[in-house]
Write a structure and sequence with these properties.
Protein Transport Mog1p, Chain A, alpha+beta, 186 residues, 3-stranded antiparallel β-sheet
Length: 186
Amino acid sequence: MMKKTVAILLCLAMLLGCAAAMAEAADKTVIGQVNMNGQFTLKCALPEGYVLVANEIEPNSYSGVVSSDDPERPEMILTIAFNEMYSNVERLNDLSDADMELLKETFTDEYQVEFSFMETAYGTKVLVAKEIEGEVDFVDFYTVYKGYEVEIVMVNEVGDTYVPVTDEQMQLAMDFLTNMDFVPAE
């Protein structure tokens, strides 16, 4: 009797573990079926109230906007494009310090920015370029995967005017990006 009870409890624990894993996987949404030339699919859970609308889909590039119906909430502009310069780079994590410095220079041509890094739950390093000159009108999140540059620019446009991105809004993007995952093609 004791063995049956233990076996039943173990089965229940395993079923609950499987259900939790499936629920976690179900929370992650394939955004716009972003399948890059059969190389990978980008997956993540969109912030509540947000949708992804594709603007342009090409074999080696994608652009879309992650936006809300609420005009007070910021937009996140998603672009993915293959860059021959990174054709041998698996992830941003693999760039040398010198290559990372060259990359940072591309963000400082027009704006003064401060850089930081975050990491997704799946171990992908993301460069965060935050405008520091005047008011923060944009925050740029950038990474590389299998030679593709993946960039999400958060802007806060109310009507025809750009307003500063708040720390709370920036945290929204960071939470969104923490769930970002690249799933290799099978």
